[in-house]
Every structure is written in structure tokens, then in C-alpha cells.
Write a structure and sequence with these properties.
Blueprint: E1 2-11, E2 14-20, H1 22-27, E3 33-37, E4 45-48, E5 51-53, E6 58-64, H2 68-74, E7 81-82, E8 84-89, E9 100-106, H3 110-122, E10 126-133, H4 142-148, E11 151-156, E12 163-164, H5 168-176, E13 183-187, H6 190-200, E14 207-210, E15 226-229, E16 232-235, H7 236-239, E17 242-244, H8 250-257, H9 261-271
Parallel strand pairs: 9-10, 9-13, 10-11, 11-12, 13-14
Antiparallel strand pairs: 1-2, 1-7, 2-6, 3-4, 3-8, 5-6, 14-17, 15-16
Helix pairs in contact: 2-9, 3-4
Bound molecules: nicotinamide-adenine-dinucleotide (NAD) and FE2/S2 (inorganic) cluster.
Length: about 280
């Protein structure tokens, strides 16, 4: 069993937890993920590692309460236990040799972009972070990004905080102003990552994206997390979750990501009466 050591509500739908899992904490690296279950009957939830404390033996997770399972997880309190916490899984972010990187985070994807920015910063890389949210109330992790970024640009879709617009506008502006990036790393909604790639492509800047499709076993056996990358089938759980953004078939990934929407809506109704429409 794995104890919830700390719980913090970051905004109306995003929760941070530190989970006591010393073996996972010892090996976890930025870019990798874990699979947990909120209770012994629950479905498996893949979550990218948002941080770790090797000394304390804890792993940080940040998740959005969008489906029935994440709502169950979000209802747990400090001191409660979860039955499964498997990992670290997947490949770590490759940072070797990078001197200057633009890290682009969108919404809750910023939770995954942060450890990547922190790792780059700790290795002496110049980090320019661009993080975007729909509005001021949804902003998370600003101080943490500020601490590990040489430049931080915050944007909101409605202009209620930072610059008005979506993340691709300041990214293009920075490139046009002469910033030379070795790589762009984009983590957020699929549509955001698709447009970050479209922004970077004309300049030929290598762009890495982090994919989080539906996952079941997390070991490459079930095929649930399959994606098309460069015309070939890849499994996000073992081949990723990070991929060359130029090669990812985003349209297919977006179509597959909607597959379980009706099932999720039905499950949410069971968990939360607030979702029932009378
Ligand atoms: P959101 O819809 O609020 O978008 C966050 C930001 O992304 C926006 O404010 C904007 O700046 C940018 N963005 C969105 N659409 C864009 C576009 N067309 N062009 C340029 N920029 C755009 O995000 P959210 O609700 O916080 O995130 C939810 C989604 O993120 C879910 O679908 C979830 O699966 C996904 N997600 C992905 C990862 C990952 O590893 N890639 C991790 C966590 C969540
Ligand atoms: Fe089953 Fe990746 S989650 S193959």
C-alpha cells in the first residue's frame, strides 16, 4: 500500500499529491510515468511523474479530475493509502547536449513540463518556458517555473493573466526575435502540441512532444496506447511517452482520444451526483 503524504488542490480541477513510494522515487526521472489504482476495484490510471524526492521516498503526481477514476483519487485525503503505484515506466526525457531549450506547457500538461524544465536547468541548459492556461483561475506552478527558467512567458486565452493568447504566439515571437533553440519540448493537450509542431516546422527546430493516450498494462502488451509515429505503430508506454513531434500522427491520436468519452460520462455519473442532469 502507498500512503498519500501530502495533498494540495492547485485549482478547481487539478490536484497535487506526494505518494510514499521509495522504490519508484529512487529510480524515477523526468518524462517517465507511473500507473496507479485509487482502490482495488479501480481502473489503472497512467500519470506522468511530476517530481520526486529521493530522500523522502516520495513521488509527486498532479492530475486533473476529469473522469470517474481521477475523481475517486481526488476524493482521497492525506494519510489514506492507494493499493497500486507501479513504475517508473517509459523512457526518461533525453536532455544530453542541449544548451538552449524552449519548454512549452499547456494547462495541466505544465505539471509534466515542469520536471523537464527543472532537469534542463539543473544541467546548465538555458530554459525559456512558455506556459498557457485558459484563464487566471487555472494557472498552476508559476513560482516553480520561474525558479527554473531563464525566461518565463505566461499566457492566458482570455488575457486575464500574463499575455493574451495561446502558447504558439510567444513561441513564434521568440523565434522571430532571433532566439536559437536546440529543441522545443511541448507538453499539453494534443491540439496544442500539434500547433507547436506546426509553428516550429518552418524553422526546422527539433520538437519533442509527450503523448498520454489511454494506457492499460503499461508494458507494451495490450496495444491500448498505440500511436502512429513516422508511419509506424509505436506504443507510448514503452517507446515513449516522448516522441519526435514532426512524426506523430496527431489527427489519429485525437480521434482515438475521444473513444471512451461516452463511457467516461456514464462512469462520472455514478461517482458524482453533480454530473447528473435532470
Ligand atoms: P487547455 O485546453 O486548457 O489548454 C491549455 C493551453 O494549451 C491553452 O491555454 C493554450 O495556451 C494551449 N492551447 C490549447 N489549444 C491550442 C491551440 N489550438 N493552439 C495553440 N495552443 C493551444 O488544457 P487542459 O484542459 O489543462 O488540458 C487538458 C488536456 O491535456 C487533456 O486532453 C489531457 O489529456 C491533456 N494532457 C496531456 C498531457 C501530456 O502528457 N501530453 C498531460 C496532461 C494532460
Ligand atoms: Fe498496453 Fe502500452 S499500455 S501497450
Amino acid at each position: 500500500m502507498y500512503r498519500i503524504v501530502r495533498k494540495k488542490v492547485l485549482n478547481s480541477s487539478v490536484i497535487m499529491m506526494d505518494i510514499e513510494a521509495p522504490y519508484v522515487a529512487r529510480k524515477a526521472q523526468a518524462g517517465q510515468f507511473i500507473i496507479l489504482r485509487a482502490d482495488s476495484e479501480g481502473e489503472r490510471i497512467p500519470l506522468t511523474v511530476a517530481g520526486y524526492d529521493r530522500e523522502e521516498g516520495t513521488v509527486k503526481i498532479i492530475f486533473q479530475t476529469v473522469g470517474a477514476s481521477t475523481m475517486k483519487l481526488g476524493a482521497l485525503s492525506e494519510g489514506d493509502f492507494i493499493p497500486d503505484f507501479a513504475g517508473p515506466l517509459g523512457r526518461a526525457t533525453e536532455t544530453e547536449g542541449l544548451k538552449k531549450v524552449a519548454v512549452v506547457g499547456g494547462g495541466v500538461g505544465c505539471a509534466i513540463a515542469l520536471p523537464v524544465a527543472e532537469k534542463l536547468h539543473s544541467e546548465g541548459c538555458e530554459v525559456h518556458s512558455i506556459i498557457g492556461f485558459r484563464n487566471r483561475d487555472l494557472v498552476i506552478l508559476e513560482d516553480e517555473f520561474r525558479a527554473c527558467s531563464d525566461k518565463l512567458i505566461m499566457v492566458t486565452d482570455d488575457g486575464s493573466y500574463g499575455e493574451k493568447g495561446v502558447v504558439t504566439s510567444p513561441l513564434k515571437a521568440l523565434i522571430d526575435s532571433g532566439e536559437k533553440y536546440d529543441r522545443i519540448i511541448a507538453i499539453g493537450p494534443l491540439v496544442m502540441m500539434k500547433f507547436v509542431v506546426a509553428t516550429a516546422k518552418p524553422y526546422g527546430i527539433p520538437t519533442v512532444v509527450s503523448m498520454n493516450p489511454i494506457m492499460i498494462d503499461g508494458t507494451g502488451m495490450c496495444g491500448g496506447c498505440r500511436l502512429t509515429v513516422g508511419g509506424k505503430t509505436k506504443f507510448a508506454c514503452v517507446d515513449g511517452p516522448e516522441f519526435d513531434g514532426y512524426l506523430v500522427d496527431f489527427d489519429e491520436a485525437m480521434e482515438r482520444s475521444t473513444m471512451y468519452h461516452s463511457h467516461e460520462a456514464a462512469e462520472r455519473e455514478k461517482v458524482c451526483n453533480l454530473f447528473k442532469q435532470n
